[in-house]
Amino acid sequence: MAIKKSELYSSLWASCDELRGGMDASEYKDYVLLMLFIKYISDKYAGVPYAPITVPDGASFKNMVALKGKTTIGDDINKKIIGPIEQANKSLGSIKGTGDEKVKRLSNLIAIFEKPELNFANNKAEGDDILGDAYEYLMRNFATESGKSKGQFYTPAEVSRIMAKIIGINNENSTANTTIYDPTCGSGSLLLKVADEAERKITIYGQEKESATAGLARMNVVLHNCPTALIKCTGNSTLSDPQFTEDNGGLQQFDYIVANPPFSSKNWSNGLDISSETADKYGRFDGFGIPPDKNGDYAFLLHMIRSLKSKGKAAVILPHGVLFRGNAEAEIRKNLIRRGYIKGIIGLPANLFYGTGIPACLIVIDKENANNRKAIFMVDAGKGFTKDGPKNRLRDQDIHKIVDVFNKQLELPKYSRIVPITEIENKEYNLNIPRYIDSQEDEDIQDIEAHLKGGIPNADLEALNPYWQVYPGLRNILFAPHQRPGYSEQKVDKSAIKSAIFSHPEFTSYSQKVFEVFESWKQQAIPMVKNMEPGIKPKKLIHEISENLLLGFSNLSLIDRYDVYQHLMTYWNETMQDDAYVISDDGWKAGREVYRIHKSAKDKNGKTKEKEVEGLDGIESKLIKPVLIINRYFEAEKAALEENESQRDSLASQLEELEEEHGGEDGLLADTRNDKDKITAASVKDRLRKIRGNTGDADEQKVLEAYLKLSDAMVDLNKKIKELQKILEIKVWNQYKTLTDHEIKSIVVDDKWMTTMEQAIHTEMQRISQRLTQRIKELADRYDTPMPKLLDEVRQLEEKVNGHLAKMGFIWK
């Protein structure tokens, strides 16, 4: 049975993290990622003629398995496994060191990758890079664990996706000769995201200063099926020792360049002659100026510009300071703007990156038509993110909005602008985004006259115009003109605002329109997902149905199409993609495959054994949870079970009431407590035997008999519930086996996926009404009682208090 994508990721991380002990994540990642790589190429390419990766005889993962437990395992892996693979493929670093702890750690790590479900040769959804994604997942976790100083090898995948989509590469404008270059490639994830956007194979080049990180990049490109990518490393900076040069001594030029260089590098000029603009033999500073000696941000940017072809395009991540810092950087910035090289700037949220918490920006360079460029497109995307542990993370909706707005050059209030070069010149070539886009929320201004004389300012109501445009008659239901011009008074009590909105015909009509759009999307999506077959590429599937969802909701007011899109993408990441990958591997028949869950438990001797989980909770299926089977086929049985459980809960409440009423020290149940100070049926029976027949204890006897009656009824009900649960469990188990492919598709797609999405649409409709309701209540509370009335109430209360004080003999002035 195929392993779910999320299970693959989480089990790898959990297992590996458990084994690393006190070793720093930045070091331990080399063990894990290298092991993943060797396992993958062994499963995929060992013994395969003309494979892009050669696995020499005696150097595969199965040969590594034979080394488990040996005291020389570290050296043997280096010499017998990694060494031959390096010689055959010119890649990879090595695992170094020896020692008893290393023997245990490496042996256990090998055991993790021996699991049958991690046989990577069986991955049918090959185009989706499941293993490459697993590698990225592990790197992201290691980057998170490694801290600021050691996590810089990894660019967050969300930022990489944006850069790949705004740089302009696609399947139509790329060929095998299209070149992409990253001068500070780290683990290579940024390069691979761009290559993935091109879809077809392109030529990949990367340079990385750190040899261990270059090894990560080489493994990464192989795992993402780009084994011909050229990653170079000399231990020196790209600025002082560029590895991609022409025969004439100049820099090699590329179609596309992406980079996330080290922020504000203080030693960028080591090994360079920067005595003048023309001193650099590659001419990178000619006509621009020399970057500050202790800040290399513009040095990397100018290197990229020099490495671009005449129509080349680039995207680079840099700190916000490059937009406004003065002196030498101001001169460089002015020259870049005058030449028209800067196409756009995107401001990103703070705390996205693993090496720093400061906010960064994306600078997009486009040499094509640079001479005719009259404006720079700016986006302030600094507020669109979600918290993810100690870091911020861009959501799918944030990414899509940035890409849509940038690629379509859409101007949105407080978010994006086409800024004329003349305006930038007037501001002394300062590119600080807040100078051009005011993204601050409008201040909620208090109306002094309304506080003094009452009424709700019409200006506040007109700020709700997006709602009144959709519900034009609702405003007249909620408000009437005030006696003073420019103000309104509330017609509906505050407690009835929500019901007035929900019950209004225009709200009902709008809700119906929203669900018509949703139903239209469903009619497109359902055939697509039900036609999934083994080998389907889930990433392409979700791209198509999510884009259709965005398109469908693009013409609706009030509801944010990106919010709807996020619901789908969140559910995809949590559930749907796992289902899709299972179907891609095993087909819909996976819905018939049911098994019992086992968990570890200790026996009476303290030994850990695998124990089968009993009941419905112990039934598992890769595609269909038991509750879905029950809801579709066994509603009557479910209802009967719930009715008995409800009766049991009622009896339990009655027993609890008896204990509360009579269980105190002087209560009629006081003498029924056992040696553990608990009231039980046995202790009640024992007490009843002692007092039975005593006329003086009639009240106590009555309470005891009532308690036992309830307790006996509880026992009978629990027995009946267990019988019903067992019957239902057997029926559910047997039902799995009889499911047809048609039934499985209907359960998974209709009952599971589409029902969840329909609930998401209901959630969005509730958010719309809640926002409107909350604002109206806020205005009503604010101006409900004018100041004179408040002062009058204070006066009345003061007089009342003074009167009471006078009666008590106090004189109060």
Summarize this structure briefly.
The chain is an alpha/beta fold.
Could you please describe the fold and organization of this structure?
The termini are far apart. A 9-stranded mixed sheet has the order 3-2-1-4-5-7-6-8-11. Strands 12-14-13 form a 3-stranded antiparallel sheet. About 2% of the residues have low confidence. The protein has 813 residues and is of the alpha/beta class. 36% of the residues are buried. Helix content is 50%, strand content 10%. Strand 4, helix 10 and strand 5 form a beta-alpha-beta unit. Among the domains are: 146 residues, N6 adenine-specific DNA methyltransferase, N-terminal domain (Ferritin); 214 residues, no CATH class; 40 residues, no CATH class; 104 residues.
